[in-house]
Structure formats: C-alpha cells, structure tokens
Amino acid sequence: MAQPSTTYKFELNLTDLDRGVYENVKQTIARHPSETEERMTVRLLAYAFWYNEQLSFGRGLSEVDEPALWEKSLDDRVVHWIEVGQPDAERLTWCSRRTERTSLLAYGSLRVWEGKVVPAVKNLKNVNIAAVPQDVLETLAKDMPRVIKWDVMISEGTIFVTDDRGQHEVQLQWLVGERG
To answer: Could you tell me the pTM of the whole model?
Structure first.
C-alpha cells in the first residue's frame, strides 16, 4: 500500500523589497512520501522568491507533466514554470516550450550536473537557473516542523529567512539568466 503524503501548514510573511511585494500568505502543502525535506524547503524558497497571487504548487513528484510550482494566466496558460532539483537538459527544454518563462532552483552537489546541463540550456531565452547554497539549505530543512512560519525579506536578490531557529541568509548563485 502506498504511503500518504504528509501535510504541512506554511505561513509566509513576505517582504520583497526588490519587487515591492508585501504579503501574508497561508498555504497547506503536501510532501510526497519520496520527497526530501530539502526539496520541500527549496519549493518553499521558490514560492517566496517568485511569489504572486497566481503562483501555486504543482503536484510535482506525483505528476511528471507538472512543475514544482507554476503561475497560470486567467485563461489557464502557463506563464511561469518553476522546477527544483537537478532536471536534465531535455526536461528543461521541454518545460521551456510550454511556458513564457521557466525558472529552476537547483540544489545538491551540482558540479557534474552543472557541467552537463547548463551548457545545453544556456541559449534558451526563457530559462533562468539559480543554485541554492547547500549549507544554508541543510540548516533550513533540518527537522522541519509541521507548521512552518517564515518571515522572508528579499533585498538585492538575497533571501533572508527568519524562523524559530533564527535568521538564514540565502544568497542564490545565478548559473543562467537572472530572477526575471
């Protein structure tokens, strides 16, 4: 019998100085049984970083034709497709053909992946790739509570996350493109 997803409550107090976005958002998030805490944490970072009212979580791991997050227009077109992890170049190319904008927050040991994938997708005009520093990701993801309360401030592209354990500075490294 398949294991059920684990649900988390996510409370986000967002101050994005770069875009002038100030929001308090509450979401219920499902974590697939095979999803790591690190992957879920990167999904939450992506949600905060690219937040807008139309941004929603996809079914991700349980549905290969959906991203981790996506923004859809009122006529149901995918405007922004957001992946997390280390997808191959074919996946990123496939995603980029289905949307106006594709973004990726990569994490983990990226040296080999970056050498193979980045050169293959760097000429795609609607693809942006950023890497999340592994040390701060491990700290944020460790022993993730079922009710996650984050105060997030974004300034000059740096994400400052304050939770029950303190403040964490997430300085993304842009591998292709920019925030967009």
So the answer is: 0.94
